[in-house]
Design goal:
CATH architecture of the largest domain: Alpha-Beta Complex
Shape: globular
Largest sheet: 7 strands, mixed
Mean pLDDT: 90
Structural class: alpha/beta
């Protein structure tokens, strides 16, 4: 079958690879009808996040049709149409049972303390082959797959594999209450999903910070007040908009490729932190501009929620400012399985159409060129769906 394979930094290729097979009784094999390119994928290709194993199939977002199930997969059968959760979880350990699917004890082959297991990632995440392919093996399929309602399209469902859950998770971690003022840094796909989720949770006002006109326009269409950091100081603008108080909640939907504190960030805000004018992180770097801005823009006793991706080597954080303002900090990888069923119901009911975020649909065989266009942040390339050949 055809699959997009990582060979080295800045070297990805559309290769012929063996079709996946059932390896464990909890596995399923799914024929993919939709995949997508995410900002996290760009981290691996650029080398911002290290540890990719050559030969790994990329991609952690997928929708498809079940072809095979193992003996211990009792809730699906061949022919079921499913969305696949981006992170992998066993469903049985204490963490999964508490809803912390991203910290599953059983999914990562590197051991209980290895962290989140997910598709198409580095060896530290399990090096599971991903979903920018014609088919995928889904470990712990009884947990990692969710049936897609008939009235939810592939274009909608693919955004529920990772993007919508991550944005919702960001808003959930922020502990948004009715009336809160919420500042969202980054208006890429996850930033937009966070804006929508904050609105659903009753936020009184949402202030969206970015510099790309099409992203700011999309944020405005979702009801946000927009701030272009190329034209004005975002912190001073948030303070001016809130009568000097600041935002009750802030969400960092940018992450590692934000630039240094003395420059503008590479603010694309897809929730996974790939920047249009990307700074390449090196260990020991100064705190990211977005973290500085978020802490400064928060009201006293506010809460910062971080879903933008940072590598383990990143050790800099404006802890002094945060401590002196009594800031509460929440962060982490999304517990996808906790949110996907609920969000599919919201999509099916028409509360939010995630396909609004989808701006490009490309055939799988053009994936390498699509990566290049996505990385260059060409106008309109906000979120890219890949369609495997029939």
């Amino acid at each position: 079958m055809k699959a997009l394979v990582f060979h080295d930094v800045n070297d990805i290729r559309m290769d012929d690879v063996p079709e996946p097979t059932l390896e464990q009784p909890t596995d399923a094999v799914v024929r993919l009808t939709a995949s997508a390119i995410c900002g996290t994928d760009l981290h691996f290709v650029r080398g911002s996040l290290k540890g990719m194993k050559p030969g790994t199939v990329l991609g952690h977002e997928g929708v498809g049709i079940v072809e095979q199930v193992g003996d211990m997969v009792r809730n699906f059968r061949p022919g079921d149409r499913v969305v696949i959760c981006s992170s992998i979880a066993c469903g049985s350990c204490a963490y999964c049972r508490a809803g912390y699917f991203a910290q599953c004890d059983g999914a990562n082959p590197a051991g209980k303390r290895a962290g989140t297991a997910f598709f198409g990632g580095p060896e530290a995440s399990g090096a599971f082959n991903g979903m920018q392919a014609e088919k995928v093996r889904v470990p712990f399929a009884h947990v990692g797959m969710v049936k897609v309602p008939d009235d939810v399209s592939d274009d909608q469902a693919i955004l529920v594999s990772d993007i919508f859950p991550t944005g919702y998770y960001a808003a959930d971690m922020a502990d948004i209450h009715p009336g809160h003022v919420v500042a969202v840094f980054g208006c890429g796909p996850v930033g937009i999903a966070a804006i929508v989720s904050a609105r659903l949770m009753g936020a009184g006002r949402i202030i969206a910070i970015d510099h790309e006109p099409n992203r700011l326009a999309m944020a405005q269409r979702q009801g946000a007040e927009v701030v272009d950091f190329d034209r004005e100081d975002p912190v001073q603008t948030v303070l001016a908009l809130t009568n000097g108080i600041g935002a009750d909640r802030a969400i960092d939907a940018v992450g590692v490729d934000a630039e240094h504190a003395h420059t503008h960030p590479a603010q694309d805000g897809d929730g996974h932190g790939d920047g249009g004018k990307a700074h390449r992180y090196q260990p020991g770097d100064a705190p990211s501009q977005v973290l500085e801005w978020a802490i400064d823009a928060l009201a006293k006793a506010g809460t910062l929620s971080i879903v933008g991706v940072y590598p383990e080597e990143f050790t800099q954080f404006p802890i002094g400012k945060a401590m002196n303002k009594n800031i509460t900090l929440h962060m982490g990888n999304c517990n996808h399985r906790k949110y996907v069923p609920h969000l599919l119901d919201l999509v099916a009911s028409g509360v939010f159409d995630p396909a609004d975020v989808l701006t490009e649909v490309e055939p799988m065989h053009d994936a390498v060129a699509a990566y290049a266009a996505f990385d260059q942040r060409k106008p309109g390339w906000l979120k890219v769906e890949l369609q495997p050949a029939a």
